[in-house]
Amino acid sequence: MEPDTATRHRCRRQLHVFLFPFMSPGHQIPMLDIATLIASRGVQTSIVTTPLNLSRLRSALHRLAHLPITVHPLHFPSAAAGLPEHCESLDSLPSTLMSHSFSRAIMMLHPQGDDLVRQHQPDAIISDQNIPWTAQIARKYGIPRLVFHGTSCFSLCVSDSVSKYKPHENVNSDYKPFLVPGLPEPVHVTKSWMPSRFFRHVGLQEFFAQFVEAERNTYGTIANTFYEIEPKYVEHYGKISGKKIWPIGPVGSVEPDSLGMAERGNRASVNVDRCLSWLDSKEPNSVIYVCFGSLCTFAESQLVEIGLGLEASNCSFLWVIREGYGNGIAIGDLGERVKARGLVIMGWAPQALILNHPAVGGFMTHCGWNSVLEAVRSGVPMITWPLFAEQFYNAAFVLTRLRIGFGIGGDTGLEWGREQEAGVRVKRSRVAAAATRLMGGSESVREIRQRVRSLSELAGAAVSEGGSSHVNVDRLIDDLLMIKERLAAGQPVNEL
Ligand code: UDP
């Protein structure tokens, strides 16, 4: 017999889940959303992270104070790992060359994580793939560990097939497309897109190798995606991983209020009301939003080309330039020069809020998976410009499977630690042409808009009561409760 709602709720309150987000905005933001989703069903959730990262979550946590979410701070060993003080998040490193030290610091957190789990005895761990030692802790204390990768199932499947079958080993050219075997449908990629090449210079391979071992000790996968956007790849990933998978996204949909969206991930570097009134003054679908995520960085010469290209496009634009790495030095007064049609935000933009505004009709993006999903959720078509990691696979998915945008970026991305050497990859004329095309009214763009609108409706339905993602959150919690009960009854749980 099915338990009644009150019993169900009582049981859920007895479940305690620890969440370990990776210290980078593109991972921490969806992890907080996952905590919110689970806690809003009555489950005790604890977020384990460092003080600086917690400070970015503070206002969101304040708003969520009615939910059973607690936080456990970890001391981040910056100095011991050879990092400057206060570098507790990947986006706060003065150079991507330091990412190796950053990964060392992540590994050094293991004993603190172990102590916390020993003291608080949670029933399950949800942790980022970039924190592989959580799998060892889960094994040690006999509880399930669920992994969160933060990317699409499509890119997880492509990466898996490439590493399993090594189709690139027979290909001489970096730019010649080759077929990736073992996927539900034909997918072609090039060597220049392969994630491993972007991190060669900073020596992260050893760190990545630990993820593979950790996946073996993992109970299942929580994916920020929804079944309807990539059904073949959700199923295929379940098969190849041999584990359960719960697609519960787009997870950001849990904060539909404007304050939540404005403060998502960090404090905005712009006055949010000014930003919104600027957008309010524009026609529907007339503004192109340009943002390359929380980590990407360009040579100053490339920034100048982007700015001048946007200016030449004659479109209204809202352009976010990430702080750090010298970004912004050369563009100096560009913001001033283009202010009639463009708004330039130096630093952190309230992206979810911007994409959701009716004036925004296009998004030039690096194709980080959160950005892709946020665009889909808001029904905004994309100009794809992938730069590193699995962004090329996500871009291929957007262009060839979803067909909700077109590409602008070169065939190759930016190698970490060598971004400044890359110089100009995309000239202003291409930036201008792409913006003009997307914001124009051609038949092909109308079709793109229609497709992304339909996907947006599917995303909304997935997270609504009874929708696939909504149901999957319940299934996930019920599964964890069942494991807790079996363990309490002394029954073995072989999947752990
Ligand atoms: N983001 C934001 N404002 C910014 C830059 C990024 O709100 O100025 C958010 C964005 O909405 C997304 C996340 O940061 O939720 C970036 O994740 P994504 O996977 O797109 O890219 P990454 O930063 O990991 O490369």
Which descriptors apply to this entry?
496 residues; 2 domains; binds uridine-5'-diphosphate; six-stranded parallel sheet; single chain; globular; Rossmann fold; alpha/beta; 15 strands
Coarse structural class:
alpha/beta
Helix content: 40-55%
Number of structurally distinct domains:
2
**What is the percentage of strand-forming residues?**
5-15%
CATH architecture of the largest domain: 3-Layer(aba) Sandwich
Classified in CATH, the superfamily of the largest domain is Glycogen Phosphorylase B
> Biggest β-sheet, characterized?
7 strands, parallel
Please write the CATH class name of the largest domain: Alpha Beta
**Which distinct ligands sit in these coordinates?**
uridine-5'-diphosphate
The N- to C-terminal Cα distance equals 27 Å
Main sheet strand line-up = 3-2-1-4-5-8-9
**What is the CATH third-level topology name of the largest domain?**
Rossmann fold
Spans of 5+ residues with little confidence (pLDDT < 50)?
none
Q: Given the structure, what is the number of helices?
A: 20
Average predicted local confidence, pLDDT: 91
Estimated radius of gyration: 22 Å
How does this structure look, described?
With 496 residues, the chain is of the alpha/beta class. 49% of the residues are buried. It folds into 2 domains: 269 residues, Rossmann fold (3-Layer(aba) Sandwich); 199 residues, Rossmann fold (3-Layer(aba) Sandwich). Helix 13 links the parallel strand 11 and strand 12. The strands form 3 sheets. It has a 7-stranded parallel sheet with strand order 3-2-1-4-5-8-9, with helices on both faces. The two termini are 27 Å apart. The protein binds uridine-5'-diphosphate. Uridine-5'-diphosphate binds next to helix 2, helix 14 and helix 15.
